[in-house]
């Protein structure tokens, strides 16, 4: 089984061909291809982690869609002072489908 550990959206993800992953927003339109930076490649029993060998490895993914994550509610409260603050946040995300690992 061939899989790779890639840097995607500030995190490390384990991917293989056909996987769909959700990462932080990528500046690309739906249908575009994106190249992900490999950190480790496992090809059966052979593990590749050297920087010079990983420079030859390409992990490409296709942008499926842009979406927004779930709403996170941030509330701050201080007792006896009347201080209350409420804020919401939804993270901008992109869904990618891995097309090839070469």
UniProtKB/TrEMBL annotation:
Keyword Lipid metabolism: no
Top-level taxon: Bacteria
Cellular component terms per the entry's GO annotation: ribosome
Claim: rRNA-binding is one of the keywords in the record: yes
Keywords noted in UniProt: Ribonucleoprotein, Ribosomal protein, RNA-binding, rRNA-binding
Self-association and partners: Part of the 50S ribosomal subunit. Contacts protein L20.
Family in the record: Belongs to the bacterial ribosomal protein bL21 family.
Function comment: This protein binds to 23S rRNA in the presence of protein L20.
Protein name in the entry: Large ribosomal subunit protein bL21
Provenance organism: Saxibacter everestensis
Source organism phylogeny: Bacteria, Bacillati, Actinomycetota, Actinomycetes, Micrococcales
Gene: rplU
């Amino acid at each position: 089984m061939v899989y790779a550990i890639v840097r995607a959206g500030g995190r490390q993800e384990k991917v293989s061909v056909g996987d769909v992953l959700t990462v932080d927003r990528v500046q690309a339109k739906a249908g575009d291809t994106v190249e992900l930076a490999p950190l480790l490649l496992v090809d059966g029993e052979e593990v590749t982690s050297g920087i010079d060998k990983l420079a030859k490895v390409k992990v490409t993914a296709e942008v499926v869609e842009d979406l927004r994550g779930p709403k996170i509610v941030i509330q701050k409260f201080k007792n006896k002072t009347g201080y209350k603050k409420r804020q919401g946040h939804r993270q901008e995300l992109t869904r990618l489908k891995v097309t090839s690992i070469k």
